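Exercise: predict the fold of this chain.
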Amino acid sequence: MIIKSVKLTNFRNHTSYSLNCKNQTTIIFGENGCGKTSVLEAIYILTRGKSFRATDSEILKRGKEYYRAEIEFENGIKTTVTYDGKNKNYIVQDKKTKRLPKKQKYPVILFLPSDLNLISHSPGSRRKYFDQIFSQFNEKYNEALLKYEKALKQRNELLKNKDLTSSQLFSWNILLAKYGTILFGYRKEYIEEINKYFTEIYQSIMNNKDRIDIEYTTEILNNSENDYYSKLENNYQKDLILGHTSFGVHRDDYLFKLNQELANGSASRGETRSIILALKFIEANLVYQKTHIKPLVLLDDVFSELDEQRRKHLVNNFKENQIIITSVENI
C-alpha cells in the first residue's frame, strides 16, 4: 500500500500537522527538534501497531487531553489511532479496535541513526533489533516471542521468593522450553539466510573483497524441548540465588564478524556504516521474499551520517519502495 497523507493532532510537539506523500520519495526537512522523527513514529504506529521509541503517555503533547494520528492510503483506506490519556483505539473503515488488526499491519524498514551503533550495542539491543525484523514477516515467530517473554517474566517474579520450590516452576519451564526452541529454530534459520547474501552486498558497497558474517551465539544446543526443560530444571538452585532465569534464548546474541574477527573494535566507521546498510538491504529483501510485499522505508536523518557513495547505494537499493526521509536540509 502507498501512503497518500499523514495527519497529526497533539502528537508530540505537533498541535496540528499534515503531510502529503509522494509515491516514491518524500522528504521531511527542518531543524533538529522540530518534530521530524515524530512523523515517522506516527507512521510506524499506524502501520506496525506500536511506537519504536516511547509509550502513549510520552507521545501525548503536554497539556493536551488526547492525541490523534491518521494515515490515508492511495486506495482510499484510512487508519486512525487515538489516545485520551487512558485508552488507545484504532479505527479502520469505521471499525474500532484496541489493537491494530493484523490485516492492517504493513512491513516497514526503519533506519535510525542509532542503528549505525548496532555492532557495538548491548546483546539485548541486538536481540530486540532482530526480533523486530523476524516478527515482521513471521507471525508465528512474533507469537512465540510474546508468549516466551510473558512466561519469562512470570518465572523471574517467582524466583524472587526464596521459599520457592522447583515444582512451582514446572508450568513456566514447560512454556519456556516450548517457545524457546521455536525461537531458536527460526533465529538459526534466518541468520543463515542473511549470511548467504551479506558478503556479496557488503562488497558491492565497499568495492573490496572483505567478508562479513553474523555469528548467532546461543546456549541452546538443539531444538529439543526436553533438553531445554532439563536445563531449566537443573538450574533451579542457581536461578533461585540469582533471582532470575540464567538459561535461555533471552541470552542469545548476534556477533558481527569482519574477515572472521569481531567487527566491534576492528571495523572502521565507514566499514560499520556499510555493514548496517547491507543489513538493511537484506532485511528489505527478506520481508519481500516472505510476504511478497514491498516494505515501506522510513529513514530518520541518516543521510547526514552517510557519504555520497553510501547515499547512492541507499537510494538505488530502495528505488522500488516508497521512502519517507527526514533530514536537516532539503536533499
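Check your answer against the key: The chain has ten helices and 13 strands.
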